[in-house]
């Protein structure tokens, strides 16, 4: 089963390497990884998408909590949460196909960020299902390239916000 694990860490050198090393050293796969600072520059949040049964996820969480500079670890999956991924999609677009492609982009609430004589680059943000559907609809026009950010997720409600003053 797919799980989204949020890891609050001190914004220090080597933390990302230790987290990635934990996964590779134990044979766990990282399907998606997104990292950035929080509103407090002393901390960063890692959003890790991985797969496993409950026992494996529990083991990953316990091992993450033991790492140096890790403040808080939680599995966001069972929580009421919002998740998104941003994609940049380069698609073939001739003067003949552009109107149809623009209609698709508008339907999916995408944004054209670059236009050349024979292609468009579209920015789209959404859930995994929405992004996959967008790609599927654009495929007949000729997708040239797709770049994804990785997923980010946040629990809904003020009570689900991590307390930076407490440890795991």
TrEMBL record:
First-tier enzyme category under EC: transferase
Xref: CDD domains: ACT_AHAS
Coiled-coil residue spans: none
Pathway participation: Amino-acid biosynthesis; L-isoleucine biosynthesis; L-isoleucine from 2-oxobutanoate: step 1/4; Amino-acid biosynthesis; L-valine biosynthesis; L-valine from pyruvate: step 1/4
EC number: 2.2.1.6
Catalyses which reaction(s): 2 pyruvate + H(+) = (2S)-2-acetolactate + CO2
Keywords noted in UniProt: Amino-acid biosynthesis, Branched-chain amino acid biosynthesis, Transferase
InterPro entries, per the entry: Acetalactate_synth_ssu (IPR004789), Acetolactate_synth/TF_NikR_C (IPR027271), Acetolactate_synth_ssu_C (IPR019455), ACT-like_dom_sf (IPR045865), ACT_dom (IPR002912), AHAS_ACT (IPR039557), AHAS_small-like_ACT (IPR054480)
Domain ACT span(s) in chain numbering: 4-78
GO annotation, cellular component aspect: cytosol
Biological process annotations from GO: isoleucine biosynthetic process; L-valine biosynthetic process
GO molecular function (one): acetolactate synthase activity
Residues annotated as transmembrane: none
Subunit structure: Dimer of large and small chains.
Family, as annotated: Belongs to the acetolactate synthase small subunit family.
Listed PANTHER family: ACETOLACTATE SYNTHASE SMALL SUBUNIT, ACETOLACTATE SYNTHASE SMALL SUBUNIT 1, CHLOROPLASTIC
Record's function text: Catalyzes the conversion of 2 pyruvate molecules into acetolactate in the first common step of the biosynthetic pathway of the branched-amino acids such as leucine, isoleucine, and valine.
Protein's name according to its UniProt entry: Acetolactate synthase small subunit
Gene: ilvH
